[in-house]
Design brief:
Layout (H helix, E strand, L loop, with lengths): L3 E9 L32 E6 L7 H4 L2 E3 L19 E6 L2 E5 L5 E5 L5 E5 L30 E9 L4 E5 L5 H8 L17 E8 L2 E7 L26 E7 L5 H15 L8 E6 L19 E3 L8 H24 L1
Parallel strand pairs: 1-3, 2-4, 9-11, 9-12, 12-13, 13-14
Antiparallel strand pairs: 1-8, 2-7, 5-6, 5-8, 10-11
Bound molecules: guanosine-5'-triphosphate and magnesium ion.
């Protein structure tokens, strides 16, 4: 079971540019004074919390971040340009440590929170700064400073974006195993899953979300039948719910209604969350199977985790809902 996501990356700020050694050269001015410009500052590396991100998965693919070097100074008192900064987005809730010392460097909590994690080197001064009464032609300039470099260890307590709800054997664990790298136990007896599992679902480059697989609930769960419903608290803070009924259910609509009723008994606000109705195990559905209407005016998704059917449209819709909520939360936060 994996509730904590972690990643290790190295960051390096840009080195400062060198100061320039140069002397004015103009017609009729035979011995011009020093006019070497300053080197530019190296780019800084920043971390910025972003509520649109929910995992550290991207850092499994990219582990090294380097900001731009400052440009060297030039003649005619021209300074070099500063190096480009790098801004690394991290999910809200990421704790960042120095990997060598273990020291906590920052706790990225608020959306938009930004911290400079590696400082770019200062540019060196050009020789124009070093002329004195006794030394009118300095033939030296300052080198640029090195940019800071640090190995970071990041840790994020995962919060599920999507919660899977269904009777035992509905195929919840199977779905999370095809959507993510999570490998929960799957078996043809009820209550195979005894503790919640989280899986990270990659949607696209730089897009991923977290899915929670919880033990099955049954009618009367609110009164303590089966494993009870204490696990539903794990999905109280999710953005959306998948309510799953297998195609071989004796009465799909009744089973669906029972699930909603148990959710409501546990916490009525669960019913005001967006949800998707999903019929699973479509590979064993009879040919004449007709998809029942489970939600007024809403599409019912028909899938098979085993046969890999219908998964793409479901994933697309999940992402659509999650990102719509990320946006509306961001709007709320800025009001
Ligand atoms: N034919 C078929 N079988 C499936 C499909 N998905 C799951 N199953 C089977 O249904 C059984 C239950 O699957 P699980 O994924 O363990 O179901 P669950 O909802 O996690 O069950 P609990 O953990 O007990 O609540 C297993 O035997 C699976 O192989 C499917 O798409 N097609
Ligand atoms: Mg399971």
């Amino acid at each position: 079971m994996k509730f904590v996501d972690s990643a290790k990356i190295s960051v390096k700020a840009g080195d400062g540019g060198r100061g320039c050694v140069s002397f004015r050269r103009e017609k009729f001015v035979p011995k011009g004074g020093p006019d070497g410009g300053d080197g530019g500052r190296g780019g800084h590396v920043y971390l910025r919390a972003n509520r649109q991100l929910s995992t550290l998965l991207d850092f499994k693919y990219r582990k090294s971040y380097i900001a731009g070097r400052g440009e060297h100074g030039m003649g005619a008192r021209k300074s070099g340009k500063n190096g480009n900064d790098v801004v690394i987005g991290v999910p809200c809730g990421t704790v960042v440590r120095n990997a060598e010392t273990g020291e906590v460097l920052c706790d990225m909590v608020e959306d938009g929170q930004e911290i400079m994690i590696a400082k770019g080197g200062r540019g060196g001064q050009g020789n124009q700064h070093f002329a004195t009464a006794t030394r009118q032609a300095p033939r030296f300039a300052q080198p640029g400073e090195k940019g800071e470099e640090v190995e970071l260890e990041m840790e994020l307590k995962l919060m599920a974006d999507v919660g899977l709800v269904g009777f035992p054997n509905a195929g919840k664990s199977t779905l999370i195993s095809v959507f993510s790298a999570a490998r929960p136990k799957i078996a043809d007896y009820p209550f195979t899953t005894l503790v919640p599992n989280l899986g990270i679902v990659r949607y696209d480059d730089y897009k991923s979300f977290v899915m929670a697989d919880i033990p099955g609930i049954i009618e009367g769960a609110a009164e303590g039948r089966g494993l009870g419903i204490q696990f539903l608290r794990h999905i109280q803070r999710t953005k959306t719910l998948l309510v799953m009924v297998p195609s071989d259910s004796a009465d799909i609509a009744a089973e669906y209604a029972t699930l909603l009723r148990e959710l409501e008994k546990f916490d009525p606000s669960l019913l005001s969350k967006p949800r998707l109705a999903v019929i699973t195990k479509m590979d064993i559905a009879p040919e004449e199977f007709e998809t029942p209407e489970l939600e007024p005016d809403a599409k019912v998704f028909t899938i098979s985790g085993v046969a890999g059917q219908g998964l793409k449209p479901l994933k697309d819709e999940l992402w659509r809902q999650i990102s719509a909520q990320n946006l509306s939360e961001a709007a709320d936060a800025s009001n």
